[in-house]
């Protein structure tokens, strides 16, 4: 379990999130992965050589982007973590209704983890439909599916990387157990 660094409490939340992630996963003998901000768009870059490290890049200094991209990394299996941007399909803003439905289907698990991570940092979670141009916000079904997935994670557990990160965030931010299902209400997603 990570211990809060006394100086880190004065840093912006995003910097603290980066510190926690890197403390958990940057070790070259372990996952050799770093969370890095300041980018115009999020992207995952696998290491290109023995001296390199994997980079989970997030948008600017946005805590929600950092947590969301960390969630995608926690979801991706070993084979996916060898591929640029995990080899995932992505349609940019302006998706059709069918593309939006597929987006919502594949985003339930990462957004559920993002909510758990946000709770561990005492940050508000907002469901992202990521399709502003089309005016399609998150559907009621999508919100319910995310809430149900969080409840499932709280009852059955999450994978080791997600649990390590969630608990380390909670320790850093002085929060209760982030896998307590009582912390998550469907009405919080309205």
UniProtKB/TrEMBL annotation:
Domain of life of the source: Bacteria
Keyword Transferase belongs to the record: yes
Keywords, alphabetical: Aminotransferase, Transferase
GO molecular function, one term: transaminase activity
Pfam families found in the cross-reference section: EpmC
Protein name per its UniProtKB record: Diaminobutyrate--2-oxoglutarate aminotransferase
Organism: Microbulbifer thermotolerans
Lineage: Bacteria, Pseudomonadati, Pseudomonadota, Gammaproteobacteria, Cellvibrionales
């Amino acid at each position: 379990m990570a211990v809060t660094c006394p100086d880190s409490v004065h840093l912006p939340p995003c910097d603290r999130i980066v510190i926690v992630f890197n403390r958990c996963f940057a070790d070259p003998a372990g996952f050799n992965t770093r969370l890095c901000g300041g980018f115009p768009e999020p992207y995952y870059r696998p290491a290109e050589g023995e001296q390199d490290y994997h980079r989970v890049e997030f948008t600017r200094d946005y805590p929600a982007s950092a947590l969301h991209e960390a969630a995608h990394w926690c979801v991706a299996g070993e084979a996916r973590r060898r591929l640029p941007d995990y080899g995932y399909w992505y349609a940019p803003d302006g998706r059709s209704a069918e593309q939006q439905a597929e987006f919502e289907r594949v985003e339930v698990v990462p957004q559920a983890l993002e909510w758990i991570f946000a709770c561990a940092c005492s940050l508000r979670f907002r469901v992202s439909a990521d399709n502003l141009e089309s005016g399609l916000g998150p559907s009621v079904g999508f919100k319910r599916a995310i809430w149900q997935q969080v409840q499932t994670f709280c009852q059955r557990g999450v994978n080791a990387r997600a649990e390590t990160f969630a608990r380390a965030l909670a320790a850093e931010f002085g929060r209760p157990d982030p896998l307590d299902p009582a912390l998550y209400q469907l009405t919080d997603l309205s």
